[in-house]
Design a protein that fits this description.
The relative contact order is 0.07. This protein starts with a helix and ends with a helix. It has 3 domains: 112 residues, Immunoglobulins (Immunoglobulin-like, Sandwich), CATH 2.60.40.10; 77 residues, Thrombin, subunit H, CATH 2.40.10; 110 residues, Beta Barrel (Lipocalin), CATH 2.40.128. A hairpin with a 5-residue loop joins strand 15 and strand 16. It contains 2 helices and 32 strands. It has 330 residues and is mostly beta strands. The strands form 8 sheets. Strands 2, 5, 6, 8, 11 and 12 form a 6-stranded mixed β-sheet that branches. Strands 13-14-15-16 form a 4-stranded antiparallel β-sheet, with no helix packed on it. The radius of gyration is 36 Å and the shape is elongated. 8% of the residues lie in helices and 49% in strands.
Amino acid sequence: MKKKLRLALLLSIVTILLSVLCIPTQVSASQKAIQTIKLKPGEAKKLNIPSHYTNNTNETMYLKPQVYLSGWGHAGGNMVSVTSSPAILKLLPGEGGAFSYTVKFAPKVKPGKYLLELSVYEIGGYVWNDFIIEFIVESEEPSILKIFNDDPHNQKLYVYQSSQGTYGYVDKNRKIIIPAKFQTAKPFNAKGAAPVSINGKYGFINKKGAYLIKPQFDEIDDTGFHEGLVGVRIGKNWGFINEKGKVVVKPKYARIFFYSEGLAPVTLHNGKVGFIDKKGKMVIPAIYSSVTSFSNGQAIVYKNGKAYYINKKGKVIKEAKDILKWEYDE
């Protein structure tokens, strides 16, 4: 009787061992890994995860990946697609191979966090849960970080900075009117034009975000249009364009200042300052170290340590003894 019990126990142990050996654990896979990946709706990304398998059996194996989106079932319905290469991995005895994966969430997927379970199973065999990956689907439009309200002529549109450091425009209710796609953005002027930059070039947009003047300049005078002209820089030289973007005064000056009463101060590359008219003609010679714009027919100029009032013909009216040197000396 005891011999029969010992024999039965031995047979049970052998049966258990054989059943274990029949389970296809002889396919050695990478350990389960958890990753967090950020992407936008409609964006495809390749997964950088270990996915190498080796067939340690004497039979050919066929492996296939399967995807589940937590809460949404197999492949997440129409929410997400996972493409594997190859679609089916054929492994001969002793052979190794790997999958590569590309994940893409549908364009209309709601921003948020999603858990993706990526499994690999042997066709006709067992399922292996290899990876659980967290995806953060980001909004297409960055959130509002800061709103600027510093200009009385802003056309009721306010510059805002997004969480990604770009700039756009919102209304008084914080509704985004022009998305944040610019590197810099300035307030709208009284005529509904705003200077913006993108890809390192400056231009002007209207209140709908359409370009009035396409970005093409290296810099634009922050003070905007004055008397229909605005200063722009191309390379190291400044000039003026009109409201249609046409160059009116050829860029050749080291610095420019806005037009006032038909004249604009300009600085030559030798550091001397004079005044030009709207055709670019130097009407007051560049012989000063510093000047102000004209107001009420007069400007203040600085020369040889003294300040003077001049008229629009460049004639000295009187010495400006009440002007301190440091106020205008460069």
